[in-house]
Amino acid sequence: MVFAFGRSGGIFNRPKPRMNESVQFWLDQGQESMDKALQHLQFELSKLRAGKASPSMLEDVRVDYYGTPTPLHQLANVNTPDARTLSVQPWEKSVLSAIERAIINANLGLNPSNDGHMIRINVPPLTEDRRKDLVKRARAEGENAKVSIRSARRDVNEECKKLLKEGLPEDMLKDAEAKVQLMTDKMISKVEEVLATKEKEIMTV
Fold this sequence. Notes:
By secondary structure, this protein is an alpha+beta fold. 53% of the residues lie in helices and 17% in strands.
């Protein structure tokens, strides 16, 4: 049997490995949830154009393909010939008109030009008001990410507290709470870094 000295100088049996594993399981789950929140934020921010053409601007466009709403990238190749232009080359020319309508209906503020072979989109420079609006949207997405991260922290803490009834020592619970708080602080800092980078990108003329 393995012993460890407690704070009072006495000895006690170490918690069963199963308890250690249970705590670690929930810590890992929390980290995974926080990572997903950050990844979702990065994905959403990638769709906020900062004055430069990017294929991600058309990420949410769905085309009516024989009655089925289909992601644009499944029907065409989207490229950026230059910083101000998007080109959409469909695999089938028969869907050109449907793609054009889908881009217009997506209300992205873009005006597609159909030459019968492909679609070109000129991405106009952003106005000052538009840039400020995009910064607000970016910050809102950042707040959503923070809420998700804090929710993950709460879930981990609640699950670990349940383990007390199964014999988890109080000091191990405190240790788990400290670890999940460090995880939370680290991920919130990453959110702030991602937001700062995006805001600079948006506001740079």
